[in-house]
């Protein structure tokens, strides 16, 4: 259970390790009809697998927090695509956000506050300089360009995950121009943000943290801060949906490389 509104929890799944047919069949059985239709539309097998694991993760995460059966959840999306709880009624205080990339799925859950999360793979092929010059704030783009080539992808995706986490927490998607807010990474433990006046937001409203969950992934989380709160330190867990219990991972300080171990056996007992 999430004991109070100040808690933020993050659940991570190493999705490419979930290959057992009985586990995947159990995930399929959780899907609502509209989720199953979307699942079946994926032509790419990896994308279909990531979608299935993501849906299983959000359902089981919400169920662990509430006691509601995982198959009972129904979801909707706001006008910018942010997923929200549609049913059962009575859980309007719960906020969650999802992200997946090649090999990793993440779910953040909080109460009575907006939250956004993003995970990215460092081995994504892209012209990082062109993207940063085109979309990021000038100071961010200059910082990325000044990085040695060997470090450039890490710096680019550090900024990118923070930006994605923020716009997802706002629930406004890419209607927020990415160059209207900028992060300062001078203090590696606490990313700081500044907003263009046109964006009409207050930096004191938000807390951010960033992590390296595996050797090839970066993650950032943005969470709405209530008045008087200090910087938040999420509790992070590794989990295989429907299989065993979540395993806390330490340390929880920002800018942490989280040990990429799976403590479970290759074929654990499935909880149904």
UniProtKB/TrEMBL annotation:
<feature type="domain" description="4'-phosphopantetheinyl transferase N-terminal">
    <location>
        <begin position="24"/>
        <end position="108"/>
    </location>
</feature>
<dbReference type="InterPro" id="IPR055066">
    <property type="entry name" value="AASDHPPT_N"/>
</dbReference>
<dbReference type="InterPro" id="IPR050559">
    <property type="entry name" value="P-Pant_transferase_sf"/>
</dbReference>
<dbReference type="GO" id="GO:0019878">
    <property type="term" value="P:lysine biosynthetic process via aminoadipic acid"/>
</dbReference>
<dbReference type="GO" id="GO:0000287">
    <property type="term" value="F:magnesium ion binding"/>
</dbReference>
<feature type="region of interest" description="Disordered">
    <location>
        <begin position="251"/>
        <end position="272"/>
    </location>
</feature>
<protein>
    <submittedName>
        <fullName>Uncharacterized protein</fullName>
    </submittedName>
</protein>
<dbReference type="InterPro" id="IPR037143">
    <property type="entry name" value="4-PPantetheinyl_Trfase_dom_sf"/>
</dbReference>
<feature type="domain" description="4'-phosphopantetheinyl transferase">
    <location>
        <begin position="114"/>
        <end position="208"/>
    </location>
</feature>
<comment type="similarity">
    <text>Belongs to the P-Pant transferase superfamily. Gsp/Sfp/HetI/AcpT family.</text>
</comment>
<keyword id="KW-0808">Transferase</keyword>
<dbReference type="InterPro" id="IPR008278">
    <property type="entry name" value="4-PPantetheinyl_Trfase_dom"/>
</dbReference>
<dbReference type="Pfam" id="PF22624">
    <property type="entry name" value="AASDHPPT_N"/>
</dbReference>
<dbReference type="Pfam" id="PF01648">
    <property type="entry name" value="ACPS"/>
</dbReference>
<dbReference type="GO" id="GO:0008897">
    <property type="term" value="F:holo-[acyl-carrier-protein] synthase activity"/>
</dbReference>
<dbReference type="GO" id="GO:0005829">
    <property type="term" value="C:cytosol"/>
</dbReference>
């Amino acid at each position: 259970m999430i004991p109070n509104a100040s808690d933020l929890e993050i659940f991570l799944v190493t999705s490419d390790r979930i290959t057992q047919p009985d586990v995947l069949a159990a995930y399929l059985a959780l899907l609502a009809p509209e989720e199953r239709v979307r699942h079946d539309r994926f032509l790419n097998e990896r994308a279909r697998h990531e979608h299935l694991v993501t849906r299983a993760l959000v359902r089981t995460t919400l169920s662990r927090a509430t006691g509601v059966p995982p198959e009972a959840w129904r979801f909707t999306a706001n006008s910018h695509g942010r997923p929200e709880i549609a049913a059962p009624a009575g859980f309007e205080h719960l906020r969650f956000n999802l992200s997946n990339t090649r090999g990793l799925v993440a779910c953040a859950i909080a109460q009575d506050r907006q939250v956004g999360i993003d995970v990215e793979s460092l081995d994504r092929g892209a012209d990082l300089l062109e993207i940063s010059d085109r979309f990021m704030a000038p100071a961010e783009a200059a910082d990325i360009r000044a990085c040695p080539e060997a470090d450039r992808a890490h710096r680019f995706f550090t900024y990118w995950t923070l930006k994605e986490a923020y716009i997802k927490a706002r629930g406004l998607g890419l209607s927020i121009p990415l160059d209207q807010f900028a992060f300062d990474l001078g203090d590696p433990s606490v990313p700081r943000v500044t907003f263009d006046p046109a964006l009409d937001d207050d930096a004191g409203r938000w807390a951010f943290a960033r992590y390296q969950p595996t050797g090839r992934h970066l993650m950032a989380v943005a969470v709405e801060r209530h008045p008087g709160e200090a910087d938040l330190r999420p509790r992070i867990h590794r989990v295989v949906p429907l299989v065993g219990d979540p395993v806390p991972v330490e340390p929880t300080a920002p800018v942490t490389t989280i040990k990429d171990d799976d403590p479970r056996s290759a074929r654990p007992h499935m909880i149904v």
